[in-house]
Amino acid sequence: MSTTPPDATLTCTDALLNSSTAGTYARTVGRVVDDVAARLAVVDQPWSGASRTELAALVDGVDLDAPGIGADDALRETADLYATHAVWFHDPAYAAHLNCPVAIPAVGAEAMLAAINTSVDTYDQSTVATLMERRLIAWTNERIGFTGGDGVFTSGGTQSNLHALLAARESALTGPDGTRLRGVARHGLQDRLRILTTSSSHFSVAKSAMILGLSDDAVVTVGGDADGRMDPGALAAALATTARAGDVVMAVVATAGTTDRGCLDPITAIAELCDATDVWLHVDAAYGGGLLVSRERRHLLRGIERARSVTVDFHKTFFQPVSASAVLVREPADLARTSWYADYLNPVPEAGAADAEINQVDRSLQTTRRFDALKLWATLRAVGADGIGEMVDAVCDLAAAVHADLAGDPELHLIGRTDLSTVLFRYQPEGVTDAQADALVARVRRVLFDSGRASVARTVVDGRPCLKLTLLNPEVTLADVRRVLGLVRGAAHGILAGQALADEQEPPCRDVHPHLDRYDTVEAAR
Fold first, then answer.
1. Contact 267, 363 (CB under 8 A)
2. Of 122, 130, 265, 342, which has the fewest Cβ atoms less than 10 A away?
3. 12-31 burial, b for 16+ CB within 10 Å, e for fewer?
4. Residue span of the signal peptide, if any (predicted)?
5. Residue 472, φ and ψ in degrees, nearest 5
């Protein structure tokens, strides 16, 4: 029998956070914070530019079945793998997707909530955390203009939109007596439910329709203007056409900040039509929700208070770490329709008691759920709502400055306008055909991404590929954006030059390697 003492790293309980390991926790997390801070201080491009093959080799090279190596070595190894090759959203050359640099107070709160590990599904697991989240839901509702509304934090805009449309579906499938339709009556009506929205709405609207069991043609596209905003006239026509067909409009989804263009639908005009036809209006303000705290642009959300439900992503224009979103409803009864009860969690008799505990699982699609609201709470207390609003206005101002800077540019041509912080453009100087410009979009984005020097996005607008900048960093300057656009120009120039060289003539026919003569000459000289 072996007398070798067991490896201390295998004492797994030593790795658990409790009163006896508090000192280890402080030292361990401190080292991680110091390492990340040191990396942040020297970041000079969005990411390393390592190839997928290289990254896969690094990942696959870690033996996850090997004995433990201890917390310090494990975290050091993890940082060398993950942090070294992560995408840094705070870098000025990152301008691809709806990712923002995060507020430091929120990062501190993230560490706090991760260590305490609260689950805000029931009050007895969360106590004050539930009350703090309920206060933030009330605060957001007040900003929207919902009096006495309700809501819950979610994992992101996709879940928020799904939850809102679930509530809309349940409202549509409620009988005149207020009870939930069942059986043939329910299924027959569900097949006729329709969602009206524009082609610019988020993909999660169509995905939600699929998840909710609606028919394949449930999502009806409503026409828009040249910038993708919903046309109220087209909506009026779609409402009438749907009714004539014997179908039922379950919801109209207006977008307050389209993903591609950053434009807002005319909410007030849409709300007028929804009110007139008694139709549920959902406003997807995942991107544009930050305007709720903007001094300069809050008016763009005028009419949002007339919606039945609203999505807000705090991890976009409130500068919160992923994830932090919320679905808000004007009438608490709308969320109550989606409630579910379990004896071991939130029993019905208790739920109806006057002194019942506040169990947010009644409102949420999730059971176990992180206390993500704490991050927003800390940020609001640290910099204030006006401070967040100033950052929102800063990124919108920057986008406006970039649009002005590119007006009349001979190479980079703007595509449409924006209400928020998006810049759409194509590289197409004189002499470059549409087909060539189309092909350049993907190649330029790939060249920049593979190099690690800059990250821009691509999309398709009106059938044409284009490049996209999503500006969500309030510290980025016009000079920073010009540098990124300079990289775009340089990549495009190089690609076109290479194509021209390849097309100029067929490569010479040789019986030997094309560099052999030069090599022989050099060798002879030696």
1. no
2. 342
3. eeeeeeeeeeeebeeebeee
4. none
5. -125, 20
DSSP for 65-130? TSPP--HHHHHHHHIIIIIHH---TTSTTEESSS-----HHHHHHHHHHHHH---TTSHHHHTHHH
Contact 262, 287 (CB under 8 A): yes
pTM for the model stands at 0.91
Q: List Cβ neighbours of 469 (8 Å cut-off, separation of 6 or more).
A: 95, 399, 402, 422, 423, 425, 456, 457, 481, 484
What does the alpha-carbon distance between residue 323 and residue 316 come to, in Å, rounded to a whole number? Answer: 9
Label the pairing between strands 422-427 and 412-414. antiparallel
| Rg, Å, the chain Cα set | 27
What is residue 341's predicted lDDT score, i.e. its pLDDT? 85
pLDDT tens-digit series, residues 344-381: 888 876 666 767 789 999 999 999 999 999 999 999 99
One-letter amino acid of 129: A
d(CA 218, CA 67): 53
Sheet bearing 455-461, strands edge to edge: 94-95, 455-461, 464-470, 422-427, 412-414
* Alpha carbon distance 103, 126 (integer Å): 24
Please report, as a single letter, which amino acid is at residue 105: P
Complete edge-to-edge strand list for the sheet that includes strand 193-197: 150-154, 325-329, 309-313, 281-285, 248-255, 193-197, 219-221
Which pLDDT value is given to residue 342? 84
Alpha-carbon span 228 to 267, nearest angstrom: 14
Cα–Cα distances (Å) from 320 to 151, 164, 220, 461, 470, in that order, read 19, 22, 33, 29, 16
Question: Computed from CA positions of residues 332, 333, 334, 340, in that sequence, does the dihedral angle turn out positive or negative?
Answer: positive
- Nearest Cα neighbor of 93 from 515, 470, 521, 499 is 470
Which amino acid type is present at position 138? Answer: A
In three state form, how does the secondary structure of 296-360 look? Answer: CCHHHHCCHHHCCEEEEEHHHHCCCCCCCEEEEECCHHHHHCCCCCCCCCCCHHHHCCCCCCCCH
Going through 408-463 in order, the beta strands assigned E by DSSP cover: 412-414, 422-427, 455-461
Cβ–Cβ < 8 Å for 445, 465: no
- Residue that is written with structure tokens 């505990």 in the block: 357
Strand partners of residue 220: 196
* Token pair belonging to 79: 């940082």
Look at residues 186, 184, 167, 188 and name the one whose alpha carbon lies nearest to residue 175.
186
Mean pLDDT of the chain: 92
Which pLDDT score, from 0 to 100, does residue 517 have?
A: 44
